[in-house]
Amino acid sequence: RYVPPGFAPKIGMILGSGLSAFAEQIENPVSIPYQAIPGLQTGAVSGHASLLVLGQINGVSVVCLRGRLHKYEGVEYESIRALIHIVRHLGCSMYLTTAAVGSLREDVLPGELVMINDHINFQPGNPLVGPNDESIGPRFVSMDDAYDLGLQDAMRASAKRLGIPLHSGVYLSTLGPSFETPAEIRAFKKWGADLVGMSVVPEVILARHCGLRVAGLAVVTNLAAGMSSEKISHEGTLHYGEIGGRKMAKLIPEFIKEASNAMV
Ligand code: HPA
After folding, report:
1. Of these residues, 70, 85, 239, 249, which one is catalytic?
2. What is the pLDDT of residue 1?
3. Is the separation of the CB atoms in 42 and 79 below 8 Å?
């Protein structure tokens, strides 16, 4: 009903906290409030800037989810599922997730960008629990190649071309909304986590289930608990999110062009 005739997006993307300003870069935007979308009318969605934006970036048609749904808000997996399935339903073959994260590495500092190359699901539950719809994807989903190797190459190449330093690492997802304790962070380091956050993983599982190729890009907003004398706060997240967000705003259009050329 709202989709412009002939609109055939390739890439769906979601903008994490502090990163939603990127949506302003979308050309010919058509914005649809989440509340107007079937499956999202539960009222569980907090009102601010929750928009599905259709448009172009660097000449490539995209679907942008501006405003993420988090489990810690009390949102059910059904709502998160509805968002990912819209991306698939509109015909996208790729999904780019962006997020603000804490860094578990001393050499990866606030304001820097990290490409997500794998994850650890430390949220209780899995968004695929329940009856499986075989028309969408298989019961048992491989997570071997959750973060697509071709898209990782495309992202690295784009960052290099622009001269933007890009780390890569493993994202561990907590339920939140409390931040971690220093003891939890020490444990997560031993598990092999480089980054910690409260989102990404449910979406990526859903995206892989419906056959989307996934790329992930994180902005470090703080060193994780116990690693710095600075206290972790949502304000700090927004501050460094903005600094990293400016780099992201350059990298994403380049990546989208590179990825869409590599995909065809
Ligand atoms: N922990 C969890 N989520 C986060 C953090 C963190 O340190 N920083 C930004 N999101």
Report:
1. 70
2. 59
3. yes
Alpha carbons 255 and 264: distance in angstroms, whole number: 14
Please give the distance, rounded to the nearest whole angstrom, from the Cα atom of residue 213 to the centre of ligand 1. Answer: 25
Asked whether 83 and 36 are in contact (CB, 8 A), the reply is no
Q: Is 168 a catalytic residue?
A: no
- 210-242 pLDDT per residue, tens: 999 999 999 999 999 999 988 888 888 888 888
95 C-alpha vs ligand 1 centroid, how far in Å?
A: 22
Q: Does the annotation mark 100 as catalytic?
A: yes
Indicate the angle between helix axes 234-263 and 149-162, nearest 10 degrees: 110
Higher pLDDT, 1 or 25: 25
pTM above 0.70, yes or no: yes
How many CB atoms within 10 Å of residue 78? Answer: 13
Nearest CA to ligand 1 atom 5: 102
Nearest CA to ligand 1 atom 3: 197
